[in-house]
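Revision sheet: structure tokens.
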Amino acid sequence: MSLYLQIALCAASILTFIFVISCSKKHKMNIKYSIVWTLWSLGIIFISIFPQIVYSISNALNIAVAVNTLFLIMIFLLYLLSFYLFLKISLLNEQIKNMTYEIAMLKKELSERHD
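Predicted:
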């Protein structure tokens, strides 16, 4: 991994870390989600400081270029993050549907009481 890539990764991760912390302090982001993004940025900082990890993974997977391993790791982590977010969306969708049913039932009860 080139020094330029290491510096770029580290700088981007530090900026992400600072942005996530400021968003969670201003209550713009839920703590659960800020933890995920904080761990994400700390992991990338760790990888950019210790590129030997990427080289070891490259050797274990027989990938010739370490940068390709880094891209593979990032794609995999993005895939996991995407799955997590779709799971949350599904749960929220179910909650919205249940709340809609409850509101409809309450409105029906109120209209029956007034009649």
